[in-house]
């Protein structure tokens, strides 16, 4: 396609704007990463822009030696893995059941589900329910909080209902029960959907700080993001240093600053996502489209 | 096969819906639903008459409308711009980078904002000072009047890339013959964007707009909660308190369960009315509608 003069101007403007946007998106991450690898006392002099001036791993060493942070990291990992597995399993099973033709009252079940997407009791009645079920302050609650996701269920169901009937019949002829068909035939061929929805669920669980903040009071059950809120909240020194053990305290007096520790903690809460992101990008994009085509 | 999940939905979604009835009670966590006294509209009246009510409504509506006016069209602009990029490697890089913030938790994002805008060596202040635009660092985050602007900008920053995916997909579905015809008729790229691209994706835009209007009272929750928590002493609260944060503050922090539920219920009812209104208008206009 040939471009005339006005098109070229337009192109130049667009390239410039996009470059600025990409830079503005990227820079905050880069800056934080740089600060997290720079000697804390040096950072506070100011003026670090693109590279660490005095490179160090010290900030990360302290963060990982800090028992609270390390423990919270394990809670986050555990919750993400178990929670995603539970959510995928029950949501897919539910969707599979609802995709069968013979179910009585099928439309009714669907309406029951869809209503919950638009109406809810809100935070307080939910809180009271959880409290009354004795799920308050339990790890179990962190796992089952998102057990059934209606949105994902609808996507699963669409996928299942497009599977050829013959697949299932062949399973039955070989003597499979309903569950047998689900586990041995349906789930193994649902890889792409499970991967896409599983990723979104896992990212959601990894990033969730609010649920634990409201429903967990035991510090031993708090995941990293929620702990991070407490750390960032502490803002200036006092609370954070009180939370750190003696090793860290002596370090803080030397070269490590609160800001450097905050940045290092933020990075360990984010790096796993940034690290897997390039490999999973195509799933992310596919997932975003799967979700939006529902309407 | 559907039983466990169905039971889960009924317990965790429908019992709380029934639970909104506590907004008509003086609910006491230890007495429970059965034994707490009924008090009619008392909590609603208290909410409407509370000194904060108009302030909260102003903030909720202002933040929502700003988001609708700025954060909603932003991904559309990005998609239109990306569509004009001929250099595929550049396009890829921009897309990859702009999608990232969507996957980063609000906790980390609020930490980044805090660090970027900080008056003490924050890069934004550094740059402004270097170019002599300001004499001394501004503590952006502690000026209440700036809060709306910062909140909306950060929201755009976080979601613009990911939001553009849908529009890019819609643009990819446009018949290339339309562009060729327009080019033959002498339309430049700029005209083609307005005469072909935008009209072609308008059904998608309208559907997302309707969904957005139904959400209009969800001014924000996580973002506001985290960005105000980071600020010392809640100086910005007069500009930051919205219905959702108020419900959280009253209900979870102060344990005024009935009062907070009443405020929350008021919001849900208004949202549903807005959703129906928006959908009705869209249908009258003869374009796409949700149902």
TrEMBL record, chain A:
CDD domains: TM_PBP2. One of its GO terms (biological process) is transmembrane transport. One of its GO terms (cellular component) is plasma membrane. Keywords: Cell membrane, Membrane, Transmembrane, Transmembrane helix, Transport. It is a multi-pass membrane protein. Residues 73-280 form the ABC transmembrane type-1 domain. It is found in: Cell membrane. This is Maltose ABC transporter permease. Belongs to the binding-protein-dependent transport system permease family. Pfam families: BPD_transp_1 (PF00528). The chain crosses the membrane at residues 12-30, 70-96, 108-133, 139-160, 181-206, 260-280. It comes from Cohnella abietis.
